[in-house]
Amino acid sequence: MKHNYEERKQNRIDYAKQKAVKLQKESNQLYDQAKNMASAIPMGQPILVGHHSEKRDRNYREKIHNTYGKAFAASDKAAYYESKADTIEANDAISSDDPQALVKLRNKLASLQSAQNFMKEANKCVKSGNKEAFMKLPHASEKIWQEITTPDCMNTIGFAHYSLKNNNANIRRIKHRIEQLEAMEQVKTSEKTINGVRVVINTEANRVQLFFPQIPGEEIRKRLRGRGFRFSRSEGNAWQQFISNSAVNHAYMVAGLYQAEHDDK
Fold first, then answer.
1. How is residue 242 annotated by DSSP?
2. What is the overall mean pLDDT for the chain?
3. Helix or strand or coil: residue 156?
4. Helix axis angle, 54-90 relative to 5-39, nearest 10°?
5. Is the pTM here over 0.85, yes or no?
6. How does pLDDT run across 69-78, given as a tens digit for each residue?
7. Residues 62, 18: Cα–Cα separation, whole Å
8. Pairing between strand 238-242 and 230-232?
9. What values do phi and psi take at 215, rounded to 5?
10. Confidence band, pLDDT 50/70/90 cuts, at residue 13
C-alpha cells in the first residue's frame, strides 16, 4: 500500500532470497545424506534376489532414490525463489500503490508521445526520401534510417502501421491511469459505520476497507472476494480493495447486507 510501498516490495524481495538460501541449504544437506547412504553399498553390488536381505536392500535403495529426489526438488524451488527475487527487483511496472506513480506515469506518457511523434515524422521523411530532414529529428540515427528504409517481409518501409497503433493505445491507457490517480488525489480519507461495519476510505493506504465487528458469514465473504476484496490481518483484520467508485459502492452494499444476514439467524 502507498504508506509502505517500498518497504513491502523490499520485504517480498528479502523473503524470496531467504527462501532460496534456505532451500538450497536443505538441498545440499539432502544430497550429502543420500550420497552417504549410497556409500554404504559396495560399488557394483547387485540386489541378492531370494536372499533374506533382499527386501531390506530394496527399501534402503528406494530411500536413497527418494532422498536424491527431495534434494533435486529443493534445488529447483531454490532456483524458483532466486528467479522470483530477481523478477521483483527488475519489475518496472508502475503500481498505483507507488507514491511516485503519477510522476512515473507522466514521464512514461511523455516518452510514448515523443516516440509517436518521432515515428510519424520519420515515416514522412521515408515517404519523401528526405534523409537530411530525418537526421535532424530527435533520436534519429544512421542505423534507424537504414532499418526503416529497408523493406520488410511485406515489402513495407518506415514504421509499420501497427507500431503506431499499439503505441497510441498505450498513450490512451496511460492517460486514463493518470486521470484516475489524479481523481483519487482529490478524495479525502473518510469513515462511515453501517450496521456495525466500519467502511473506511483510506487514502493513505489507497484502499477501501471494511472492518466487521465479528467474522462475516460465507455469503458476505463470497461477495467481497467476487469484487476483488482481500482480507488483510496486517491492516487490522480489514477486508480491502483499491479505491474506486465501484469498490466504495460495493463496500456500502455489503455493509448494508451484514445486519440483514444476522437478523435471519
1. E
2. 90
3. coil
4. 160
5. no
6. 999 999 999 9
7. 31
8. antiparallel
9. -55, 125
10. very high
Distance CA 46, CA 54 (A): 10
What SS3 string covers 184-232? HHCCCCEEEEECCEEEEEECCCCEEEEECCCCCCHHHHHHHHHCCCEEE
* Grid cell digits, residue 61: 535403495
Residues 6+ apart with CB under 8 A from 68: 30, 31, 34
For cell 518501409, the residue is: 157
Alpha carbon 62 to chain centroid, angstroms: 40
What is d(CA 161, CA 262) in angstroms, rounded to the nearest whole number? 59
Helix (H) or strand (E) holding 45: none
What are the CA-CA distances from residue 181 to residues 1, 137, 244 (Å)? Answer: 14, 33, 10
Residue by residue, what is the 3-state secondary structure of 50-119? CCCCHHHHHHHHHHHHHHHHHHHHHHHHHHHHHHHHHHHHHCCCCCCCCCCHHHHHHHHHHHHHHHHHHH
SS3 39: helix
